[in-house]
Write a structure and sequence with these properties.
mainly alpha; about 70% helix; two-stranded antiparallel sheet; 2 strands; about 0% strand; about 270 residues
Length: about 270
């Protein structure tokens, strides 16, 4: 739908053609992730901290009007948050299952700090929403309350930071661009986005009880990104032009089957 809209809006073939390549690459990487080795606690630990470290690169890269969300890779601007955080959510859940809740909390806290520093209120909102599924399922009680307060403070801090970036029609303003082509285009675009969220929501009800929190987290992640994009200050995932949201979601979906432990061995000792 995004490619069809870009063609109808008169974007250059190199632009909508790149989006076709992005989609094919995302699917290929998702299949590769599905065939990867099991996400052990050690691998999950590396993934959990790779996300905030990768996102730190945005703070040293040239920003736009004081906003640092992207890292340039040749002609493509990568969004490390959209690229790395879906898989990190699975890694955090795996750490919690392995008794490494303190390290998971440190990785999540570091991620929220970077999101506020960038600032990236849209990603911070989606990330906090997704974490609620994992924290609620794996901890509960007082830890969940503490997390809720910290996450709320981080999200509020990110929204309070100034952000004067203009919307790019095919990225942040793609829904408006669709309605500009006519009601049929606009309603179809909204239907495509609704189908994406609905599919992930149905997906979250399936699988084993151990897998469901991560499935729910990915559904909430996508719903949060879409909700934030309604302000036209943040990219519309999947429908809008861009590589990172597609790859991030497809890789995380591919990793789902590799994230939960496949044995019933005794868990490792928890963090003190």
């Amino acid at each position: 739908m995004g490619v069809a809209l870009e063609r109808a809006a008169g974007l250059a073939p190199s632009r909508w053609g790149a989006q076709l390549v992005f989609g094919a690459l995302a699917l290929a990487l998702g299949v590769a992730a599905r065939r990867a080795a099991e996400l052990t606690t050690q691998r999950a630990l590396a993934m959990a901290f790779a996300a905030p470290l990768g996102m730190l690169l945005t703070l040293v890269a040239p920003g736009v009007d004081g906003v640092h969300r992207w890292v340039s890779l040749g002609p493509v601007a990568l969004h490390p948050g959209a690229l790395l955080l879906p898989a990190q959510l699975l890694a955090l859940d795996r750490l919690a299952l392995g008794g490494r809740t303190l390290r998971a909390a440190v990785a999540a806290g570091a991620t929220l700090c970077v999101l506020v520093a960038q600032p990236d209120a849209g990603t911070a909102t989606a990330y906090a929403a997704a974490l609620t599924a994992i924290v609620g399922a794996r901890t509960g009680g007082a830890p969940s309350g503490v997390f809720a307060l910290v996450a709320l403070a981080a999200v509020a801090g990110a929204w309070a930071r100034p952000d004067r970036l203009a919307a790019v029609p095919e990225v942040e303003g793609v829904v408006r661009m669709a309605f500009g082509r006519g009601a049929g285009w606009g309603l179809t675009a909204l239907g495509a986005l609704a189908a994406l969220v609905t599919t992930l929501a149905v997906h979250a009800t399936r699988g084993t009880a151990r897998e469901r929190p991560t499935r729910q987290a990915l559904a909430l992640w996508t719903a949060g990104l879409l909700a934030a994009s309604a302000t036209e200050r943040f990219p519309v995932p999947a429908l809008g032009w861009g590589l990172s949201p597609l790859v991030g979601l497809c890789v995380a979906l591919g990793l789902l089957g590799r994230a939960a432990p496949t044995t019933t061995a005794a868990p490792t000792a928890p963090d003190p």
